[in-house]
Every structure is written in structure tokens, then in C-alpha cells.
Amino acid sequence: MAGPVQPVLAGVVTALVGFASSFTVVLAGLRAAGASDAQAASGLLALCVASGLAAAWLGWRYRIPMSAAWSTPGAALLVATGPPPGGWRVAVGAFLVSGVLIVAAGLFPPLGRAVAAIPKPVAGAMLAGVLLPLCTAPVRALVELPVVAGPVVVAWLVLHRFARRWAVPGALVVAVAAIALTAPPAGLTGAALIPSVTLTAPAWNASALIGVALPLFLVTMAAQNVPGMAVLVGYGYRPPFGAALRTTGLASLLAAPAGGHAVNLAAITAALAAGPDAHPDPERRWIASVTAGAGLAVLGLGAGVATTLVAVAPPILIEAVAGLALLGALATALASAVTDPATREAAVVTFVVTASGVTLIGVGGAFWGLVAGCLMLLLFHRRPSAPPADAAPPADAAPPADAAPAAPADPSRSGRSDGYSSDGRSATPTARRTRPSATDPIRSAGT
Questions:
Q1: Which of 308, 284, 251 has the alpha carbon at shortest distance from 103?
Q2: What's the rounded Cα separation, in Å, for the pair 394 and 408?
């Protein structure tokens, strides 16, 4: 099926998996930030359309499968932070500031590199602390609603074993069936098939800027944009990082007044459009990301129905589905946090402070966790002692155990050249891909 149909089908799968796997996280985050059901539906619609437009533009413009999505870790951050002082209007103001910062990172490369320079253990620990409250929801749901939550968890386990990419969508289908059987009929009959856009005038205060806007920007960059870039570099592409940030930042600014929190490069579903399953020819995989963008925009029309289902369902059940969707991200974040023994204690402090959910002077735990972890690194960092000048390693010495692994190889790369122009596009029709760097995907990307 290596024809024009294959990348289109891959794009449809990417859109379906991306939407079904995490829209519950988005709705939970927006509602936690103070949005009404109508405002949350508007935010989900805005995110779908803005992400779809960004993905379609990036794929068509650069002929690289750059998928875009909403910030799932950013939505989890909103759940952990709760409503900011000043309510939903202040949250929308924080979304706008976060979008401005993403655009600034695309315009000024040193800012993007500064975010990427945050120690990975600290960034991973902060993300893990943000995700932990939602990831414990399936356990609490099994205790509080065993009859309803049990089939959801079982469906996730079975599909996770045999068809991993469909595990969360399958669990969602079971949850929807449970909601339809247990919810009062009056709650479902009033569902709006097409959501309306609800614009909100933004407001700002210092605590929301520090406690919501800045952590949202950092989480989106560290947990979505940088890993999304690494996926593309790993498959041999040289995507223009600056252009991607400018595009997704502008999409975030477009979505924010309607309730969307952040748009970014896809990380979780990026491989579905960029890998060999999308098309054997790497030069044709961009069709998959463009199709995924169009599909995601269309799926946004179901935001009203999705919001109604979430509204009539037991909150713990929706949080359980969202937690199942985030377990993989939590595992990755924890592994990144504790891998290096030299920074393990700082990472643990970051994780504990972030997961505590404390609020100090109106600023949430994610910011204080990042501050605590960085202070631990500054206070207790010890430079390794230099080896004696005459102690040269033997020629056959093995590489260190913590050496960066090689990026995933793509068998379809053979026989291709590595020419690029300054904007990240290839100098020749067959030269859009380059040998990846496992250590710094941003420097391996174009500008």
C-alpha cells in the first residue's frame, strides 16, 4: 500500500489517536483553570483548529512531517495548579503570555537554547510532579467506582498488551459506554453537536504570570517542542526549529482568546507521521502530517459533545482516563529524572515540591519545584576531579555507561544526500534529511 493512500491513512490514524488519547486531559485542565463547560468546549475547538492549521502549514511549507498538537503536559499543569487568582480571565491572559514566549523563543534562538539547557533531570522531575496527581486517578477510581472504572482499566491493559497505540482510545470508548449507561438521560439530550466559539477578555496579575504562564511555557518547551524535534531528528530530518516555534506560538496566540492553552510540536504521536509506517519514502511522509492536521481540525467539531460527556460523567472517571493517557509520559519523565546519580537528589527535591501542589504567594508548585531543584544543583554540585595528565585511556576502552545512545535509525535513509538551505529546506529534492545528533536535537535542526 506504498502509494498516495498510505500517508493519508497514517495521518487519519495520527489525528484519531492524538485526539482520543488526550482530549480528556485538556478538558480537565481547562475546567480546573476556571472555564465553564461552554468555555472549555470553545477552548478544545480552538486548540483543534489551531493545531491543525499549524501542522498543515508546516508540513506543506517544508515538506517535513512536523505534526502539531495541544500541550498535554500543559493541561496537566493546569489541573495541578488549579484556578489562578482572578479566575478564567487571568488564565486566558497567562495563555497569551505563554504564546508570546514561544514566539520569542522562535525569533531569538538563544532563548530556545536556554530553555533546552535546563538540566534534564530537573525538567523531567518537574514534569513528573505535574503528571503525578492525574496518574493516580485510575487507582482512586477503582476504589471509588469499581463497577464503572474496572472495565475501563481492563480494556486499557488488554489493548496496551496487544495494540498499544489504541489502548487509551479503547479505554475511552469503554468509558463513554459506561457514561451513556449510567448518566441521567436529560444530561445527554441537550448536547450541542457543533460547539460555539466563546471569546474571553484576558486579564493579568503577577502571580498568574509566574505560576501559570512561565511554567506553561517551560513545560510546553521541555516536554513537547524539544522531544518533538528530537523525534524528527531521530528519523533523519532537519526540521526548522525556529519556524516551528514561531508557527506554534502564533497558533497559541490565535487559540488563547477562545480558551486554548498552548499549541506545540507533537511528541507522543509524532512518530506515527514521521516513521516508516507512514510511507517507505521519507519524502512523502509530510502528507501524513498535513492529513493529521486537517483531521484534527475536523475532530474539533465534536468538542461540544465531548464536553457534555465529560460534564455528566463522574469527575474521577474522566481523570482516570486522563491518567491512563499520561502514564507513559510519567514513566519517561521519571526515568529522565533519576538516571544520573550526580543530580538524583536535586531531581527528587524538584519532584516532591512540584507534586506537593503547594501554593506560595499565589504561585503554584511547578514553579517552586523548578526553583528548588536548580538551587539544589547550585548548592551541592561538585565538579569531577580531573584525571592525571598521564592517565590516558587505553585505545580499546569502552565508552562510558551514561554515554548518549545513538538516535533511532531509519532504514529508508540509505543513499540520500545531506544538502540544506538556510531555512531548513533541502537544497535538492532528495536532501531534506541529515544524519541526526543524539545529543542536541536543536542544534541538529534548522532555523
A1: 251
A2: 29
Rounded to 10 degrees, what is the CA torsion of 313, 315, 321, 325? Answer: 140
Closest CA to 67 of 224, 215, 220: 224
What is the residue-wise DSSP string for 57-100? HHHHHHSS---EEE-HHHHHHHHHH-SPTT-HHHHHHHHHHHHH
What predicted TM-score, i.e. pTM, was given to this entire model? 0.74
Q: How far, in Å, are 127, 133, 185, 190, 336 from residue 355 at the CA level?
A: 9, 7, 38, 38, 16
Q: Contact 80/128 with Cβ under 8 angstroms?
A: no
- Model confidence at 192, pLDDT cuts 50, 70, 90, reads low
**3 state SS for 375-402:** HHHHHHCCCCCCCCCCCCCCCCCCCCCC
**Cβ proximity of 237 and 284 under 8 Å:** no
Chain centroid offset of residue 15 CA? 14
- DSSP letter string, 17-40: HHHHHHHHHHHHHHHHTT--HHHH
- Rounded to an integer, what distance in angstroms lies between the CA atom of residue 395 and that of residue 148? 62
Q: Do the beta carbons of residue 425 and residue 226 sit within 8 Å? A: no
Q: How far is CA 286 from the centre of its chain?
A: 20
HSE (side-chain half, CA atoms, 13 Å) at 352: 9
Summarised one tens digit per residue, pLDDT across range 256-306 is 999 999 999 987 778 888 888 888 888 999 999 999 999 999 999 888 888
Amino acid at site 107: L
* Residue among 372, 95, 62, 369 nearest 237 (CA): 62
What's the rounded Cα separation, in Å, for the pair 202 and 425? Answer: 37
- In three-state secondary structure terms, 357 is coil
